[in-house]
Amino acid sequence: MFKKVLIANRGEIALRVLRACKELGIGTVTVHSTADADAMHVRLADQSVCIGPPPSQDSYLNIHEILAACEITGADAIHPGYGFLSENAKFADILEAHNITFIGPSADHIRIMGDKIEAKKTAIKLGIPVVPGSEGEITSEDDAKRIGAEIGYPVIIKAASGGGGRGMKVANNESEITNAFHTARSEAGSAFGDSSVYIEKYLGKPRHIEVQVFGDGKGGGVHLGERDCSLQRRHQKIWEEATSPVIDDAARKKIGNICAKAVQGLGYSGAGTVEFLYEDGEFYFIEMNTRLQVEHPVTEMITRIDLVNEQLHVASGAGLSVTQDEITFTGHAIECRINAENPDTFVPCPGTISHFHVPGGLAVRVDSGVYQGYKIPPYYDSLIGKLIVHGRDRAECLMRLRRALDEFVVDGIETTLPLFRDLVSNEDMQTGEYNIHWLEKYLEEKNRAR
Ligand code: ADP
């Protein structure tokens, strides 16, 4: 096992990794910008190194400074968390050249999955069901129209290098292709420096369902069931659950085994998430994330497996600590992302937290990097914490979640807590009948009713 791990991240995820390291007796180093000198990830680590000024480009994304911090402290591995450098293949290459272990998959796997066209081709080869569409890049309007006629409208034109829901345009019929094609290409070019796009069928009312996978890097691999992340705003997840309200044991086993086989076939190493849209009983691959996800705790709650501990084991060469047969699913878990944002407009609201009280009690978990008196800097993501609740079944989980949300106090700034208090009592949320467009419609109606 590693002697000392450097955590190249901040906020709740830096703490999450720190905790797993401490439990394993591994020394911890964190890095921070000047804006984060008072942050919890700095206070709780054995050592912390200041790597630059507030902008991420100059600190959390500054590879030179992070490498220097590694060298100064003698860390033998780096955990990237999520976001920042977690899916940066060049970073993984550089670490390898410096004999520092990157706690994640190989640079090649990051590269393949970072290009959505390559990822889709790879998925097809591995027997994963995909959304019908072009086999690769489309380079002209005529290409788009030809494929549109084949697969039927509506269609969506997406950036090969896309991320965060950007560079996607829907065309409802052939006359909308010209606009969609050119807008998607120019958005992709300016946002990602790569204007290649592809086309696929636009699904009208899908759920977003993703499968957690783990590979040992030697041809072994398992799945840890699915998460339902259909509650989204502008393609951003805010509420996630495991298991999905619409997936039964047989469907879980079937899609899980397809994903586990794919991971084995790739020789993949570490944690990954295979994301699907799910409609009318069918799964359609959209992408694979080659890192730990924000919503990983719901999987931990129903499997009782510490995913970061598993990442550390695999990266150190010790392999996976569990076999597929040993992975079982108990009860139901829901996560709410508590953001420092206005709950109606989602405009970020940094500032000082004047009062902070987290809920407790049976099966309630709060992953957060903030504390009372903490001043949230305006430079980073607005996620300040995650409330995760487990119950023997979905009904019990919802009851417990309602109680926990009532107990949660964050004063001095605006947060998304009031939105979750409304959602937990909503009828569609109670029955689990929602898809990826549900939240946007709900918010529109709420604003209209004002
Ligand atoms: P990103 O990497 O930008 O998050 P994804 O390919 O994962 O892009 O898609 C993000 C979201 O966009 C999905 O969760 C879904 O809401 C929507 N989306 C993507 N592809 C389709 C499609 N073919 N049909 C309908 N919605 C889609």
> What is the first-to-last residue Cα distance?
57 Å
Chain-averaged pLDDT: 97
Number of beta-strand segments: 18
CATH fold-type name of the largest domain: D-amino Acid Aminotransferase, Chain A, domain 1
- How many helical elements? 15
Tell me, what is the CATH class of the largest domain?
Alpha Beta
Please identify the oligomeric state: single chain
Largest sheet: 8 strands, antiparallel
Poorly predicted runs of 5 or more residues: none
Notes on the structure:
The protein has 15 helices and 18 strands. It has 450 residues and is α+β, with helices and mostly antiparallel strands. It has three domains: 4-89, Rossmann fold; 132-201, ATP-grasp fold, A domain (Dna Ligase, domain 1, 2-Layer Sandwich); 207-448, D-amino Acid Aminotransferase, Chain A, domain 1. The longest helix has 18 residues, at 249-266. The chain is globular and about 60 Å long. The chain starts with a strand and ends with a helix. The site of adenosine-5'-diphosphate has 19 residues, from β8, β12 and β13. Residues 131, 156, 162-165, 200-203, 206, 208, 232, 235, 275, 277, 286-287, 436 line the site of adenosine-5'-diphosphate.
Quick structural gist:
Helices cover 34% and strands 25% of the residues. With 450 residues, it is α+β, with helices and mostly antiparallel strands.
List the helices and strands and how they pair.
Elements: E1 4-7, H1 11-23, E2 27-33, H2 40-44, E3 47-52, H3 63-73, E4 77-79, H4 89-97, E5 101-102, H5 107-114, H6 116-125, H7 141-151, E6 155-159, E7 168-171, H8 177-192, E8 197-201, E9 207-216, E10 221-233, E11 236-242, H9 249-266, E12 269-279, E13 282-289, H10 296-303, H11 307-315, E14 332-339, E15 355-357, E16 364-368, E17 383-391, H12 394-407, E18 409-411, H13 417-423, H14 427-431, H15 438-448
Parallel strand pairs: 1-2, 1-4, 2-3, 4-5
Antiparallel strand pairs: 6-7, 6-8, 9-10, 9-12, 10-11, 11-14, 12-13, 14-17, 15-18, 16-17
Helix pairs in contact: 4-5
Adenosine-5'-diphosphate is lined by residues 131, 156, 162-165, 200-203, 206, 208, 232, 235, 275, 277, 286-287, 436.
